[in-house]
Structure formats: C-alpha cells, structure tokens
Amino acid sequence: MAKKTKKTVITKDMTIGEVLKVSPNLAEVFMGFGMHCISCPVSQMETVEEAGTVHGVDIEFLLKKLNENVK
User: Fold this and answer.
1) Is 65 in a helix, a strand, or coil?
2) Which residues of 25-57 are buried (b: 16+ CB within 10 A; e: fewer)?
3) Nearest partner of 18 among 47, 59, 39, 40, judged by Cα
4) Which of 36, 49, 53, 68 has CB atoms 3.0–4.6 Å from 12's, for a disulfide?
C-alpha cells in the first residue's frame, strides 16, 4: 500500500519565511503577484496576509495559488 504524505496547507497567518520553508518554489507565486519581498529580512516576520495587504493583493486568491503550487 502506498504511503500517504500529509500536504501542508498555507494559511494567511504563516510568515513568508515559513511558507518558503514548506516549499521554496512558492517564491515564484509571490513574484507573480508582484511581491518581491521574499528576499527582504522582514519576510521572516511578516505574514502572508500582512504582505498581501501592503501589496494590494487579494489574500484569498493568493492563498489559493500558493496551495495549488505546494510541492
């Protein structure tokens, strides 16, 4: 029987740094939304919701795209 792996769900309360630790490829999703903050030191403390608000991004749509691309 194949072993099931638990997929992490990205939430608005996670920091950008936490999200990138889960799946580094998600940097591309953030960049696609014009959120180049992934390399900023503040990203280690800023939540997805806070960063999205600052950049005028629809948080629910961003979360949908992040979760679709978790590897």
Assistant:
1) helix
2) ebbebbeebebebbeeeebeebbbbbbbeeeeb
3) 47
4) 49
The amino acid sitting at 45 is M
- How many other C-beta atoms can be found within 10 angstroms of the C-beta atom of residue 18? 16
pLDDT digits (tens, 9 = 90+) for 3-58: 556 778 999 999 999 999 999 999 999 999 999 877 788 888 999 999 999 999 99
What type of residue is 43?
A: S
The residues spanned by each domain of the chain are: 16-68
Q: What predicted TM-score, i.e. pTM, was given to this entire model?
A: 0.86
